[in-house]
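Lab notebook: predicted structure, single chain.

Context: the supervisor wants predicted structures on file for every construct in the current expression panel, including those that have not yet been purified. This is the next one on the list. No modifications to the sequence; it matches the entry in the shared construct table.
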Amino acid sequence: MSLTENLKKTSLYDNHIALGAKMVPFGGWDMPVQYEGVIAEYTQTRKAVSLFDISHMGEFIVEGDCVESGLDRIVTMSLKDLPVKSARYGMMLNDKGCIIDDLIIFRMEKNKWFLVVNGATTEKDLKHLKFSLKPSAIIEDVSSTTGKIDVQGPLSREVLKSIFPGIEKLEYYTFDFFNYLGKNILISRTGYTGELGYEIYFPWDSIDVLWNNILEDKRVRPAGLGARDVLRLEMGYSLYGHELSENITPLEAGLSKFVDFAKEFIGKEALLRQKEQGVGRRIIGFVSDNRRSPRAEQAIYDQAGEEIGIVTSGSFSVHLQRGIGLGFAKQGTAKQDDKLLFGNEKVRAEARVTSRFFYKGGSLKD
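Prediction complete. Output recorded below exactly as produced.
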C-alpha cells in the first residue's frame, strides 16, 4: 500500500485533481500544495483573491452552563468578556506551560462555543478537552462533517457579498451565520495570509457546490498550501509543529500578547516562573543576503561560526525577493541587525536579524 493511500482526503479532492493541483502529504492529509505555481498563487492572493481548501482543520462544538469558566481555564486568552459572534485566538497549554495547540474560539451563543484546531492535533486536543472540562459539558467533534474554505485577498469582500449579502458588515475577528442552499453556515472575517479574508465553515458533503460557485467569479483562482505558507511566514505567523509545540512556551514563541496573566489557566505557574527567570531562547526573524532560502531544522550560527539556534520555518519571500526565516536563538544572541549564518557544517549562507514581521501594509483590516 502506498503512502498516499493511507492519507485522508477532503471532500474537494476530486476538484483539486480536475484543476491540475499537485498533491502532497500534510499532517496526515493529501492536500493541494499548488495549482499554477506558488509565486502566481501568492501574487493572486496579495493583489486580488484566492480560494483555499482548509478542510483538514479540526472543529469542536462545546456547550453547557459550566463551559465558559471551564474553557477559560484551558486557554490562555480571556473568554468571559468575549461577545457573542466574536472570535479570539489563543493557545492550550500543558502543566509545563508548553503549547498543546493554538486555536481560535468562536462564541456562538452565551453557552455555546465553536473551536477550530489544527488538523494534525485534533485527536489529542479532543482528549485534552474531555479531561479538562466538567462531565456536564457537551463536546461534539464535528471535524468529519465540517468542510472549511478560505477566501483571501483584497477583493474577497467584493466577491463574497454577491453570494452572501451583509458579509461586508463583518469586522475583523467577528462572524455571523448566512443562508446558502437552505443551510445555515458560519463565516468569519479571519485568515492566515495577512490580507482581507473570510473563512467559511460548510457541511462536508456539499461544500463542492460552494467551491465551484465562488470559482465562477473570474477574479478568483484556487491556491494551495505552498502559497499559504509563504503568505503566513511573511506575516510572522506561527505554525504548529514549527514555531509551536509541546516543548515550546508562548514566551519563547513571542506570543505573550495572547496570554492573559490576570486570569487562571493551565500552565500559568510554569509561565510565571519562566517569566521571572527569563527565557533561555527566543524566536527571531532573519533575512538572507540573497535569494537563498533557509529550511526548517537547519542550524543558525553567529558570525564566529558558533551554533546559536535552529531554523523553524523558511522560504523565499516574493515581497522582499530574499530568503526569509524564523527560528529559535539562545537568549543574548542574534540581536536586531546582527549578521548570522544558516545552514549546516558544509554549506552556510549569510543573513541579517530583522523583525519577524516581513510584510506590512496588507489589506488585513481594511
